[in-house]
DNA sequence: GTCTATAGCCTGATAGAC
DNA sequence: GTCTATCAGGCTATAGAC
């Protein structure tokens, strides 16, 4: 969420597409990186993200977002004509991060290796992008008013394609005959919990914040329990690069 | 959340305790059940719960709550002097439901039986009280501004007492040597997911709403995977009363 | 492109008749 | 106990000077 220059441009594009009567800006891609525009867009999106998570959509005032971004309030309206456009742009930013994890897994891969990898990636993602996870969670909990289309047109097809691979593995006797979709939900819920409910987790564990060691423990625990739970032997722990 | 006459009274008590300058109402317990007061309190708390979940705290207007409850706006202020008091009363209501599930488990019990029971209870609870789960989740995600004390003074001690039991079972060789606290988080997250993220789950599965059969499947899946994952054999499925 | 000033609306909360 | 009428304040959004 810090070094995503390209996605930021999407923010402006989303805005323009949401509201046809938007500003007269030409395509944002024309601007070179580091220009005032790019810089301000990044500041605004980042500040908005924080405020939306902390205060909710209605609770986040444009004034507070402007203050956090260090810009006058009217500038927010200059870049994003309406508050909802800004909110959608922030969500869009998150989805582009999300989609990086919808990576391809192949029928020929080793199930234990792939699932272990997936679980560790998701835990690492929750650790490094807790705010993204939280805003996404709040949107879904409230009934996904802005993400219904995404769920139906992008997430559902992705899940179905993964289900196919898992079903093949089951047919080949490589893992227990469980319902693949429940396994996907289990991996999502158990890993995201540590980002979304960090306040609860840290309070119960009496910690001020997560440490890398704890994150590794969590990943190993989840990978171990889930893999054994579906009849796989968790692969020996190896050092992994967190992307 | 429909037939909890006793908790409703807590709403008024919470209100009085939160704001010392509250109304001149004498102790709510004096009123007999079914009185106008009780009825209105129930209507207000129920309507407020819905609005808070759907719109968030700031997005839920007292006017909207009043409309949903079928009462004039000023009545809300009569029963709950301030908006935050009403919100805290709703949360308090939820916690009383929650606490019913903090049941005692004994060292002499059979681990597989107890955990299977716990998982099935939690799934059933998510199914029958999705809104309660959602409001609690939103509060925690936003940093638990109103529930910090609850987490520290009630939830944490409860978790610690359960950890002891689980540790004993591990010492007795009854289950694999895992970290008990991660197991508790795993059970919470994987079961609550079906309430909090119902929109995502139902969209991905292309269903309009949950059915009892699906809930049973989910409970069996989670119980099976988690129990096997920690070295236990899931007990044979038996019919259970949902309380 | 930037920012001040302000319009217009809706909010939470209250006063006071019934 | 109930409810109408109203207030002060904060909100999004815009117009227009710079």
Automatic annotation (TrEMBL), chains A, B:
It comes from the Bacteria. Residues 38-98 form the HTH tetR-type domain. Residues 61-80 bind DNA. Keywords: DNA-binding. GO terms for biological process: negative regulation of DNA-templated transcription. One of its GO terms (molecular function) is DNA binding. Gene3D superfamilies: Homeodomain-like (1.10.10.60), Tetracycline Repressor, domain 2 (1.10.357.10). This is Transcriptional regulator, TetR family. It comes from Teredinibacter turnerae (strain ATCC 39867 / T7901).
């Amino acid at each position: 969420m810090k070094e995503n220059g390209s996605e930021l441009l999407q923010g402006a594009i989303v805005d323009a597409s949401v509201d046809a009567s938007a500003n007269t800006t030409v395509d944002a891609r024309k601007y070179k990186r580091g220009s005032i525009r790019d810089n301000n867009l990044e500041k605004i999106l980042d500040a908005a993200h924080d405020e939306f998570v902390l205060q909710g959509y209605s609770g986040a005032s444009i004034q507070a977002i402007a203050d956090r971004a260090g810009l006058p309030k009217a500038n927010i309206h200059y870049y994003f004509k309406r508050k909802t456009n800004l909110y959608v742009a922030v969500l869009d930013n998150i989805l582009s991060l999300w989609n990086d994890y919808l990576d391809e897994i192949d029928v020929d891969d080793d199930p234990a290796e792939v699932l272990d990898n997936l679980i560790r990636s998701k835990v690492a993602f929750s650790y490094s992008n807790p705010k993204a996870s939280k805003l996404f969670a709040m949107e879904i909990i409230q009934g996904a008013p802005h993400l219904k289309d995404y769920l139906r047109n992008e997430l559902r097809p992705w899940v179905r394609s993964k289900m196919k691979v898992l079903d093949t593995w089951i047919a080949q006797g490589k893992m227990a005959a469980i319902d693949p979709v429940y396994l996907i939900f289990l991996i999502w819920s158990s890993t995201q919990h540590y980002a979304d409910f960090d306040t609860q987790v840290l309070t119960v564990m009496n910690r001020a914040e997560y440490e890398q060691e704890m994150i590794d423990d969590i990943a190993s625990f989840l990978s171990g329990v889930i893999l054994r739970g579906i009849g796989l032997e968790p692969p020996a722990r190896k050092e992994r690069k967190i992307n």
